[in-house]
From TrEMBL:
<dbReference type="GO" id="GO:0006508">
    <property type="term" value="P:proteolysis"/>
</dbReference>
<keyword id="KW-0378">Hydrolase</keyword>
<dbReference type="GO" id="GO:0004252">
    <property type="term" value="F:serine-type endopeptidase activity"/>
</dbReference>
<keyword id="KW-0574">Periplasm</keyword>
<dbReference type="GO" id="GO:0042597">
    <property type="term" value="C:periplasmic space"/>
</dbReference>
<keyword id="KW-0346">Stress response</keyword>
<dbReference type="Pfam" id="PF13180">
    <property type="entry name" value="PDZ_2"/>
</dbReference>
<dbReference type="InterPro" id="IPR009003">
    <property type="entry name" value="Peptidase_S1_PA"/>
</dbReference>
<dbReference type="InterPro" id="IPR001940">
    <property type="entry name" value="Peptidase_S1C"/>
</dbReference>
<dbReference type="InterPro" id="IPR036034">
    <property type="entry name" value="PDZ_sf"/>
</dbReference>
<feature type="signal peptide">
    <location>
        <begin position="1"/>
        <end position="24"/>
    </location>
</feature>
<keyword id="KW-0645">Protease</keyword>
<dbReference type="Pfam" id="PF13365">
    <property type="entry name" value="Trypsin_2"/>
</dbReference>
<protein>
    <recommendedName>
        <fullName>Probable periplasmic serine endoprotease DegP-like</fullName>
        <ecNumber>3.4.21.107</ecNumber>
    </recommendedName>
</protein>
<feature type="domain" description="PDZ">
    <location>
        <begin position="226"/>
        <end position="319"/>
    </location>
</feature>
<comment type="similarity">
    <text>Belongs to the peptidase S1C family.</text>
</comment>
<dbReference type="InterPro" id="IPR001478">
    <property type="entry name" value="PDZ"/>
</dbReference>
Length: 339
């Protein structure tokens, strides 16, 4: 059966310096770039892990786990996937030069599958830098470095197959899809552009048998960098909470309302004593905008609410019994949960 799988991969480590643009991949290949960035890619060994994510809802239990990561600061900040280190009793990071370090999990975010680790070294560590994922396009060349099946630094290359891919695995679906080969052990490893910048964190594959079939997914660097910055602060992510269950507007309702296409998010349940209930939102209301963000599909609302600081008041425009109504809603705090 074809499945979406979160792959156990080496811990990804991001860096603070950017390789020279002169290292852009020549016609002969990525050799110079690989030599430059590979020392910053690490291998992660986990013991006592609760399990890796396999598909949107199931888990596979394992006493040990492998992953990849990349170093983003000379003093030992490392980026990887949440599912690589989730439930770990111990985490060991191995560098390309053979050195090993015990790692501390600074913080982890299941909703985006991003985690931040810390290792301590007596000398500066090699780093890689985040690039701008928003500048990437389908067809752009990329390459991945990681530790598939624990084999050590392995390089694969390909192109971006699609941007902003929604695979219905969670509210933050906005993946970069690539045909660069990604396998078990690549989880948390970096996806590079042709300047040697990290533009994605490899996290999932679509596979009928667990191996690569040329359909891999990476968390965009723009999102990953935002999460890492928050985790660096206090190891946690604070997100807003509205307290509604929503569904898409149907085409029939859109036709009745005179819209060219469905838009907004229709409320099908309001949680008691939630910010939505306090503000007067009701079942059947259609949320058209939230804090200035137009709601065209459900994930637009989910993200807009989550990105609003708890206790902040947001202006919400809803279609209520055929009329547009503007409400002020004081947003609550979303409790942590698995993605």
């Amino acid at each position: 059966m074809n499945t979406i799988k979160k792959i156990i991969g080496t811990a990804a480590v991001t860096a603070i310096t950017i390789p020279s643009l002169a290292l852009a991949a020549p016609a002969g290949g990525y050799g110079d770039l690989v030599e430059t960035v590979s020392p910053s890619v690490v291998f992660i060994e986990v013991t006592g892990a609760g399990g890796s994510r396999v598909g949107p809802a199931s888990k596979e239990s394992s006493p040990n786990g492998l992953g990849s990561g990349f170093i983003i600061s000379a003093d030992g900040d490392i980026v990887t996937n949440h599912h690589v280190v989730n439930g770990a009793a111990s985490v060991v990071v191995k560098l390309a030069d053979g050195r090993s370090f015990d790692a501390e999990v600074v913080g982890s975010d299941p909703m985006t599958d991003i985690a931040l680790l810390k290792i301590l070294s007596d000398e500066d560590l090699p780093v890689v830098a985040f690039g701008a994922s928003e500048e990437m396009r389908a067809g752009d060349e990329v390459f991945a470095v990681g530790n598939p099946f624990g084999l050590g630094n392995t390089v694969t290359s390909g192109i971006i197959s699609a941007m902003s891919r929604n695979i219905n695995s969670g509210p933050y679906d906005d993946f970069i899809q690539t045909d660069a080969a990604i396998n078990r052990g690549n989880s948390g490893g970096p996806l590079f552009n042709d300047h040697g910048e990290v533009i994605g964190v490899n996290t999932m594959i679509y596979s009928p048998d667990g191996g690569s079939v040329g359909i891999g997914f990476a968390v965009p660097s723009d999102l990953a960098q935002t999460i890492v910055t928050d985790l660096e602060d206090d190891g946690t992510i604070s997100r807003g909470w509205l307290g509604v269950q929503i569904k898409p507007m149907s085409q029939e309702i859109a036709d009745v309302l005179g819209y060219d296409a469905p838009k907004g998010a229709m409320i099908e349940m309001v949680t008691a004593d939630s910010p939505a209930a306090t503000a007067g939102l009701q079942i059947g209301d259609i949320i058209l905008s939230f804090a200035g963000t137009e709601i065209n599909e459900m994930r637009d609302l989910t993200r807009a609410v989550a990105n609003t600081s708890p206790d902040e008041t947001a202006e919400v425009v809803v279609l209520h019994k055929g009329s547009e109504v503007t409400m002020d809603v004081q947003i609550g705090l979303l409790q942590p949960s698995e993605a």
